[in-house]
Amino acid sequence: MTKKEIFVVSAFKDNSVWRQILGICSTLAVTNLMLNSLIMGLGVIFTLALSTFTISLIREYTPRSVRMMAQTLIIGAYVIIVDILLKAWLPDVSKQLGPYVGLIITNCILMGRAEAFAAQNKPLDSMIDGIGAGVGYTLVLLVISFIRELLGFGTLFGVRVMGEGWINWSIMVMAPSAFFILALMIWAINTYYYKEAK
Amino acid sequence: MNNERIPFRETLIYPIVFMIILSIIFVGVLALMYHATKEKVETYKEESYQKIVLDLCAPSIATATGLNEADIISAFPQSYNEYIKQTSLTGEDRPSFAVSIDDSVIVRVVDIPGKGLWDKMRALVAVSPDLSQIRKLAIYEQMETPGLGARISEPWFQEQFQDLQVIADGKFVTLELISEKQERKDGQINKVTGATISSGAVISMLKDSLQKLFEQNTLGAMP
Fold first, then answer.
1. Is residue B202 part of a domain?
2. Is B9 within a domain?
3. C-alpha gyration radius of chain B
4. Chain A closest CA to B58's CA: distance in Å?
5. Could you tell me which residues come within 8 angstroms of residue B9 by beta carbon, excluding any fewer than 6 positions away?
């Protein structure tokens, strides 16, 4: 596969959320505001890129029996590195992120890509696969949060777009709405995007 | 007898050695980065804290001195050092601050603890010298649910407590939580939609701490 194909497959064709149903917890939790979704997405892309690159780099030396332990250690370390760098150099962004940085460790897309791709492929290809998976995940978050923030708050990225008379849909602020939107999104993608494959 | 040597990478000890080396590398990098940035992070934390205190006191300083509120805030750290003095009240777990103009205290800032839905929270509250009225509130530490309970830090929620008389006849007044979009009357606070517990936790935090501080500190005993 070419590098472009790796990216496209990872981001769209085998999208972690709508195809592999991974990263659902955070998808439900952070999608009530677009800014939260974007920040979470960028954090995941950054961590995925670095962790898949490193895991792939040492794959020849990693014993099979402890590979998942090593992957967890590497992912955890990169998440903490991101946290330290943000606190020191971008403290305002770090404040905005709040608990999201820590939440990246619990995202199963990271372990999924490490185990499914980085452990068997070259470092650069793995990095592209990681970035692709992160972009695909961010795309899903942004689509869901677009609907939730617009209907739940009448705003987009905190900017008011609905008129004064708009009545917020309280259900959109709560997690159950993300279940419905995600389910509808998966249904629509399976019906239309994968139509030809079927 | 088979004397053939087993390659090191196939021995039982190899995974252990591998994990130890990997841990040393990553923990070492993290430790170095932490120590290299520690001072910078601490300085930023302290400055942020002082800026919140100044921001809380600025309206009262502006009223007392006739200066512009925005000018007072933008003149940090000079304005902070000029007007704000660290002090202490009986029953506090962290130092408070006071602003004195012409030897008379015009506003106090207390640092109070509370219990949120998931973890502890802390707020800095500018109060009148007799501790009976909230001038301004800033929840500066909380671990509530992002997008839901965490919205207690949004300005619209905190502004509801501005210039609010909370102690009347020696008791904390009753504050009723109403829905976010409902029109607010005296004694009512709009809660964050989907975060009744976090919204109520803020009121409980104010009630518990301010009531206690009010009871333990009389005007004569205040430093």
1. yes
2. no
3. 25
4. 22
5. A61, A63
Please write the tens of the pLDDT for every residue from A130-173.
999 999 999 999 999 999 999 998 999 989 999 888 888 888 88
* Cβ contact A173–B34 (<8 Å): no
Q: Does the beta-carbon distance from A30 to B41 stay under 8 Å?
A: no
Instruction: Give the count of domains, chain B.
Output: 1
Q: Is residue B136 part of a domain?
A: yes
| Mutate: best of B6, B10, B18, B21, partner A, most A CBs <10 A | B18
Whose tokens are 């099979």? That residue is: A64
Q: Which of residues 104-163 of A touch B (CB under 8 A)?
A: none
Q: Which residues of A touch B26 (CB under 8 A)?
A: 73-74, 77
pTM of the model: 0.75
**CA A88 → CA A184, B22, B34, distances in Å?**
41, 25, 9
**Confidence label for B201 from pLDDT (cuts 50, 70 and 90):** very high
pLDDT in tens, A54-102: 999 999 999 999 999 999 999 999 999 988 988 888 887 777 667 778 8
Tokens of B13: 């000890």
Are β-strands A159-160 and B176-178 bridged in parallel, bridged antiparallel, or unpaired? unpaired
Contact assignment for B33 to A81 by CB distance below 8 Å: yes
Domain of B176, in residue numbers = 85-216
- Structural domain includes residue B102: yes
